[in-house]
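tool=predict chain=A
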Amino acid sequence: MEFSGYILFTLVGVCLGLIGSGGSILTVPVLVYIYSFSPLMATSYSLFIVGITSSTGAVINYIRGYTRISLALPLGIISPLTVFSVRRYVLPYLPEDLWRIGEYRVTKSLLIMLLFALLMFASAVSMLKKGTVTRTTSATGSRKEYLALGLFGIGIGCVTGFLGSGGGFLIVPALVILLKVPMKEAIGTSLLIIAVNSLVGFAGDIGHYEFDWKFLFVVTSLSVAGIFLGNRLAKNIAPEKLKTAFGWFVLIMGLYIIIKEVSV
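tool=predict ok
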């Protein structure tokens, strides 16, 4: 089981390197179902793994001229503040038992996994949707569009804070559609935003939990290796084909989570 987990953590990096999103959606299910972490701890570990991996990808893309610092600011300032607030001041104080429906207990862990499954469905729809990765015009966002992007950043911050997912599947389409950013620059900029969000969110967890640092460094190293591989593969694989294949995989994983959690 550990070996399959190592392969999947490498795939996390590959997907982030290829399409700037999607890979982080794997980390929580892998940590919960293969390594038996609680959902809350899995979201915390996910933030570290995704944060370090995305930082590596952001540096690679910045060197290549594909990271737009100015475009990252509306999301890169608001989102991390939201993430930190959720991780530090909201999640730790939510009761484990949230409410009951008859004899059925809705726990914090169950809610996190069900919301994560819904997030996977949204991610899959975004990846399977055609025509969102081909814009090549330069960014000419208006003040209204930047304001919308800033508000959008609050939503991404909540997603990252509660579920430990970087939100790249939301960030990339937002940059492409709202600000008309070319796809390669959207990927590089998305990785920067994901990195900041995730690492700030993880910082909000320090002091609340005890971490297995050896395990974290091992799986993060695999994910970082994956992002280098993903960047190399990006030269030969059409992003649209990869998004479609990974979208179906994420959709199946989301269904698996719902069936497994509800049937417990």
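Residues 2-262 form one domain. DSSP finds ten helices and two strands in the chain.
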